[in-house]
Specification:
alpha+beta; two-stranded antiparallel ribbon; 7 helices
Length: 198
């Protein structure tokens, strides 16, 4: 970046005024030219959340023998491993939704919201049925993560391009590894850029 002396001074005054009046966080940077450092103040608000393209949490968990004894324990194990719920999570709606989607997948169904609500409520207490609005919210979150797709009002797990089978394990592995690879490509670029600043 190149700046003439006069324009740099004006920019500094404007940045300082904006920082004081707007109360925004300011970032001090250093411009190097011919080993001469010039300090400049840039008022900015980093839109960090809007920069996130995908976010996946994956946990390497022990698969204990007792976990394999019940369907519910296996569903919870998968949800924890895939970062869909937090450890010691007591709210069960996401778990119920995930189980409903799994049941539909293994039955080779692509349920609409009405069928999915029936699947979800079949594993919940009758006095505590799921609310459609809350279910739609969690379905949207799964879509945002790339785990779920919705077409013509029907839901199914996302499959890799040119997939020859409905293997859910392979599909999830492809999704999570692709996201990790893309993230680390940018991490490496950021490290290389940072290295030139030292």
């Amino acid at each position: 970046m190149r700046c003439c002396g006069e324009s740099l001074k004006k920019g500094l005054k404007k940045s300082k005024a904006g920082s004081r009046s707007g109360g925004e966080n300011a970032l001090w940077g250093v411009m190097l030219k011919n080993n001469t450092a010039k300090r400049f103040l840039v008022s900015m608000s980093m839109p960090e959340s809007s920069l996130i393209r995908q976010e996946h949490v994956v946990r390497d968990m022990q698969l204990l023998g007792e976990v394999k004894l019940t369907r519910r324990a296996l569903v919870r194990y998968l949800a924890l491993s895939l970062g869909l719920i937090s450890p010691n999570e007591t709210r069960t709606l996401m778990l119920d939704i995930f189980e409903g989607l799994l049941k539909a997948h293994f039955a080779q169904e692509e349920p609409d919201i009405h069928r999915l609500m029936n699947l979800i409520n079949s594993v919940r207490k009758k006095e505590d049925p799921a609310q459609v609005k809350a279910v739609r919210y969690h379905l949207h979150q799964l879509k945002e993560r790339g785990i779920l797709t919705r077409k013509a009002g029907r839901y199914k797990f996302s499959l890799p391009p040119m997939a020859e089978s409905n293997d859910l394990g392979e599909a999830l592995q492809y999704l999570y590894l692709t996201n990790t690879k893309n993230a680390f490509e940018k991490v490496k670029k950021a490290i290389n850029s940072l290295q030139t600043m030292y």
